[in-house]
Amino acid sequence: MSYNSIYYSNNFNSLDEWIELVVSGKESVYPFCRIPYDDWLNDYIENIAVQPVSKVKDLIRALLVPITRPLDISNYTNFVKMRESGIDEFVERASAVLESEVYRRIENEQEAWEGLTWILELLPSKPYRAIRALESYLLAQPNLPDDRITGIEQCCEIIEAKFIYFENPIDEIIQLKPVEFEWLIEDLYERMGYETEWTPATRDGGKDIIARGKRPDGEECVYVECKLYKTTKLEPEQVKAFGYVLMKQEVNRGVVFCTGYVNENLKNLDKRIQIWSYEDINFLLNAHLGSDWVKDLPKIISHKRRQYRNE
């Protein structure tokens, strides 16, 4: 049983029926901005691979519509009465409360709680940013209704399952040339907000990409190595050699992107070096390039080829 389930409307008996009601808007239904039961959410996420993107976005849209509860109107009315009571203590308190954006919106005949459907513009191409936007809204609005909080958290889970944890076949990357794989990873770092420098093989020096970015505690310089392997495994000697390059050039962090076999123990060989296997690479590409990045590969590679041809 979910919380407040005794107040649920009786016009649905399954997740499909509930989704039809909230998406179509043909009937009133409660709850309407969160999936009613955790089990329903878990089942939906478990089978989300078969859901078309359009249907997933329809559900997210329904969960993020603007809302106004009867309680919001009631509270607003009571605070207005307090402000007009003439009692100094009540007037001062009510005036302060009515300055909040929620009650300003109600006063202007708008919905009390703004919708967040604009994050759909970030899907499927920028799911990580969509989640960050929703999480930022939760931080900025500590007094959100419980249903809206739960609904937003459910949207984050749905976005992760559909657009980030979706596994693209490794063959799409394996067929790239090594230099094209390097360009793809460089594009990834650019999407993550880094300034990048690609280092062609003739002057490699142990890194394929140099990525520079700003952090709260200062500037960061990251050396990146790209290992496009089909079946070859990453060897300890390669990681040690990369670590020597970091030490020699006084760089505090390195990242290895490897599509081949990576022994889990190897990831702990050097704390300065982060090693991403294909599963991790796919996750990062989905999060920052979108789950359909495979379709954009020719465009990404073509753009990089033109860029470096002109340099």
Automatic annotation (TrEMBL):
Pfam families per UniProt: Mrr_cat
Family matches, as Gene3D superfamilies: 3.40.1350.10
Domain Restriction endonuclease type IV Mrr residue range list: 175-278
Membrane-spanning ranges: none
GO biological process: DNA restriction-modification system
Molecular function via GO: DNA binding; restriction endodeoxyribonuclease activity
Domain of life: Bacteria
Alphabetical list of InterPro entries matching this protein: Restrct_endonuc-II-like (IPR011335), Restrct_endonuc_IV_Mrr (IPR007560), tRNA_endonuc-like_dom_sf (IPR011856), Type_IV_Methyl-Rstrct_Enzyme (IPR052906)
Sorted UniProt keywords: Endonuclease, Hydrolase, Nuclease
Name of the protein: Restriction endonuclease
Species in which this protein is naturally found: Cohnella thailandensis
Phylogenetic lineage: Bacteria, Bacillati, Bacillota, Bacilli, Bacillales
